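User:
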Amino acid sequence: MNLVSIRLITADIQSLVGFYEVVTGVEARWATPDFAEIVTPAATLAIGSTRTVPLFAEGSARPADNRTAIIEFLVSDVDAEYDRLRAVVDEFVNEPTTLPWGNRSLLFRDPEGNLINLFTPVTEQAVAKFS
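Assistant: Predicted structure:
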């Protein structure tokens, strides 16, 4: 089994896709006006409009209703990303902080409240894990 993607559901797909294009620097691949993907070498962030939910099961997903998941992106310099994103991120949870497991981490929320972690390994053990 392979984890292929994480999918977010949104009422404003254009806005949320645009936000993730800025954050990741990756241009979205649009399959339909209601579904786009931010494809990275390791995984894909899929974004679907609320109009796609009934295709699975009516009411099975709700936009802006997640407080359990953290979407994580490995970056080369989390401090530089913090400086770059200050103009587009409305809610930072923290400033870049070095965590006990060796990653320097920046947490913020996307426009719908989903938690995003950008991190850079900084200890020898953390760097080895992601090399």
